[in-house]
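Exam revision sheet. Question 4 asks you to relate a sequence to its structure. Input first:
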Amino acid sequence: MWTSIAPVANGFGTTRNVIQSASHNYAGFYHVTPASEELYRMALNCLPVADSDKVPRPETAMHEGLRKLLHADFCTTVTTGYGSNVLNFPAVLDETWVVLMDEKSHNSMFVAAYLAKPKGIRKFGHNDMKHLEELLEQAVAETFHVLVAVEGAYRCVIPLYRADNWR
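Answer key, structure tokens:
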């Protein structure tokens, strides 16, 4: 059960109830009962813990397996789409890029683009392919590097631009 109100204590010991809006609660642990808390404590106190220097972590094995599968030099994973955007946009983009995004894209895409410090970030109207095409033509006139970032399925399809058609 998820609860939107959570007690939070500050460093001076004062506790206040706040509206919890910072997490998705994927695991469903916000409504901790005395019985579930006892189970968590028992598991933490009684289950054996491996020496991490001697036993490879499961995510290390997963990353290595994915790296080999994808024939990549390196592979990492993140736990959320937000983390994925914040990790990957700055890794790919720099000041030579213009980013075009649907105005209704998730906040993580805008934050990630901002962190990447591209030449420009522009929003097109939601599902408005004509507006996207106009912005794309303007961006192509400015730079060779343009990223169109969208999430979800779109009803319209714009023509694929090729580098030799852009200038």
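Marking note for examiners. The chain has three domains: 5-46, 49-77, 81-166.
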